[in-house]
Amino acid sequence: MFARLSQLTRHLSRPSLAFTPAVTNPAPSLSPLHHRTPSTMTSSAVANASKTIHTAACLIIGDEVLGGKTIDTNSSYFAKYCFQLGIQLKRIEVIADDESEIVEAVRRMSNNYDFVVTSGGIGPTHDDITYESIAKAFGLKLKLHQPAFERMKKLARPHPMQPHFDWEKPSPGLTAKLRMVELPHDPKIPEEQQAVFVADDMWVPIAVVNGNIHILPGVPRLFERLLECLKPNLLPRLTNPEGKGIYRFLFSTPLPESAIAPYLTELARRANPHGVKVGSYPRWEKKRNTVTLVGGNKPFMEMLVPEVEHNVHGRKVSREDELDPPSDHEK
Asked: How is residue 183 annotated by DSSP?
């Protein structure tokens, strides 16, 4: 059965979340979407689904992350994913399983960024409220996604503690499973554009809302697999359709940051118009520090290599520790 049923151990005994109806206590109006009509939002969804992807945001949803029970690795994976594709990841947020917070965050992110991914809150229990909250954010209803349900029945393994489970017989267990395939639905958009199946051996869909909100599970192996399989869908919409990504050059220097700060300030001024960022990172208790060039203009960056090496008294390396002297216990 879907990994959420066996791998996510949530505190089912904790008090239910207090949901405040959006009519009496609306989420903060930080996005123009708050004032749009359904037809306007549909037009926005169509535009969002086809425009070039320059920027991205990641929304991690879960009380278990904020409470320290679960360590978030999905945002780190997504950061590397975006870097490899040449997408500028502009924002990562972690919020609670709270309807008003989810509503506000997805409206704002959908309006501000080209490609938005959410993680968590789409399992079978009472505190998995991501689908219904995102639906509410854009004035949509939840609807049973029949293709996802059929794939679930075909691919999900029965749990050993539910030997007599019947997909055709109403039961609390079936109701719980159906929560995972009741997706936000916009009747004006083709259904195949609202839920994407990216792997033949997985029933889990990537629900797409307002054209650029992609709803993924919080289980890391599922999150990572779905994103990796989604990549072919994204490549045609990238600035560089070959997905060559962003380049990062590392320089190891024995000089302290204070010694190279004036040069790096001047270098950053010259590099910025070429889309290249200059960074400096101290390595505490190490004898060498790191300078970086990050950007998509590889020829310009390569042209700067001799200059940077000369001015920081260092060398371009493939790893930060490449030129570190042996530690005392290695001598």
From this structure: E
